[in-house]
Amino acid sequence: METLATAIITFFLVLLIFVPYYVKFKKKERKAKEKLEEAKAEGLVEAYGLHPKINETLCIGCGSCVKACPEGDVLEVVEGKATIINGYKCVGHGLCAQACPVGAIELVLGSPTKVVEVPELDENYQTNIPGIFIVGELGGVGLIRNAVEQAKKCIEYIAKNRPKAKNQNEYDVIIVGAGPAGLTASLTAMGYKLKYVTLEQEESIGGTILHYPRQKIVMTFPVELPLYGKLKFYEVPKETLYNLWLEIAKNFSINVKTGKKVVDIKVSDDFFSVLTEDGDVYNSSNVVLALGRRGSPKKLGVPGEELGKVSYKLIEAENYNDCDILVVGGGDSAVESAMALANQRNNRITLSYRGDAFKSIKPRNRERIKRYIDEGKINVVFKSNVKEIKDKSVILTTPEGEIELPNDYVFIFIGGTLPYEFLKKVGINIVQKSGN
Ligand SMILES: Cc1cc2nc3c(=O)[nH]c(=O)nc-3n(C[C@H](O)[C@H](O)[C@H](O)COP(=O)(O)OP(=O)(O)OC[C@H]3O[C@@H](n4cnc5c(N)ncnc54)[C@H](O)[C@@H]3O)c2cc1C
After folding, report:
1. Is there a shared CATH topology between the 24-108 domain and the 117-295+418-433 domain?
2. CATH topology of domain 24-108
3. 271-276 and 281-284 as β-strands: parallel, antiparallel, unpaired?
4. What's the fold here for domain 310-415?
5. pTM score, two decimals?
6. 199: which residues sit within 8 A by CB, 6+ positions away?
7. Protein residue closest via CA to atom 38 of ligand 1
């Protein structure tokens, strides 16, 4: 009798513990399924940049990857397996793969429906031409943290394995580009006491960071910089990060030559002559290309684009007040710039985008731009194209017909032409990635 009572009590105790857990689990799964269906309907599921590929046979549905993702709901557990539900939000942090206890996640580029082109690189970031290396975003993987880690590994490999300068006129390594990847490569080269030079096409160092809109919040993870120590940021205004790079470059006297656009690399056997636009020649057995992916900005190709009021970058939004401004594009750069301009005094901002929704912007930007639209701070014209830019107006084509808007400035953010032509000219192989 006593045994039966104990069994019944135990049974109810077990029910008491597990039923709420089961109900919560089912509720969470139902929500995840709903999110997946919504994302599918909006075409947001697929990821193209560096993103997780889940091996369903290995996945145990523990949800560690979901918790690890700093971008929010990229992943959810659906029917016991990790599933990408908002691929467009993935920026390739890779923390999901690190968090997976059974190794069910690998990071891949491209997808079967959207092939991504990247330079062919080995595990030391060496191209098919021995002695020419590619680090940072040019290699297909974004984020400051990745640029830093790749540059350190690449220079370490060069220091330990590659031939050095044979005479005074040569360098141990030539670094092209002074963004996060190029600057880290320079510091690492100094740490290994290599004779190096860093060539930067712009008049200032900093790379893409320099071109972020003013006060943009940069999200990153602590990284260890050679000689300097730890960069302990998680979220930081662009200016703080940019000034820190300037300070590091100054304090360590990084040998960077600005205003030096590299236009060609002559390859002869295992030796390279790097040519700049103004006629300089630098020689070495090792070249590290840290060019980023901005390349040259894409143009609209419409009448009036040559006018002085048209620009492809926005740095000082504060300089624009009481103006009629058109921003063109549907990515993070366009949306962030439109918001920065809308924050200034009395500006009237129109954002023209050919798509019917902002599909590939960060979740935070998605929420903010919605607020700006609701508050009437930005007039977004979806499904529109710029037809002509005139001195005092712009003409947009829309499904409802043409509209002419008063205009003082036009900012165009429709992406860039990748520096692949340059790479191909040098003989570097470009490969296609489709999620394999
Ligand atoms: C709007 C925006 C917001 C972003 N926000 C974040 C964020 O919050 N967190 C994050 O981690 N990442 C962010 N990123 C991505 C990050 O900026 C890049 O991944 C990072 O800057 C890549 O560094 P890099 O050194 O490879 O390239 P870049 O920073 O692009 O630097 C490349 C450098 O090479 C130079 N160069 C190019 N061609 C030549 C040539 N022929 N000769 C000489 N010099 C040349 C360029 O002028 C440039 O200075 C953002 C990017 C954008 C566009």
Report:
1. no
2. Alpha-Beta Plaits (3.30.70)
3. antiparallel
4. FAD/NAD(P)-binding domain (3.50.50)
5. 0.75
6. 174, 175, 176, 177, 256, 257, 260, 262, 274, 276, 282
7. 291
- Which of the pair, 218 or 84, is modelled with greater confidence? 84
CA separation for the pair 345, 334 (Å, rounded): 19
- Model pLDDT for residues 396-436, shown as the tens digit of each residue: 999 999 999 999 999 999 987 778 889 999 999 999 999 87
- Among 13-17, 77-81, 300-304, the range scoring the smallest mean pLDDT is 13-17
pLDDT at 42 > cutoff 90? no
Gap from CA of 207 to ligand 1 centroid (Å): 5
Atom of ligand 1 nearest to the CA of 182: 25
Give 309's DSSP letter. T
Q: Give dist(CA 161, CA 138) in Å, integer.
A: 23
CATH class of 117-295+418-433: alpha beta
Strands in 271-276's sheet, in edge-to-edge order, are 170-171, 281-284, 271-276, 262-268
CA distance 396 to 399: 10
Domain range annotation of the chain? 24-108, 117-295+418-433, 310-415
Q: 209: Cβ–Cβ under 8 A, 6 or more apart, which residues?
A: 144, 179, 180, 218, 238, 241, 242, 245
Span 212-240, mean pLDDT? Answer: 83
The Cα–Cα gap between 200 and 245 comes to: 14
Nearest Cα residue to atom 11 of ligand 1: 143
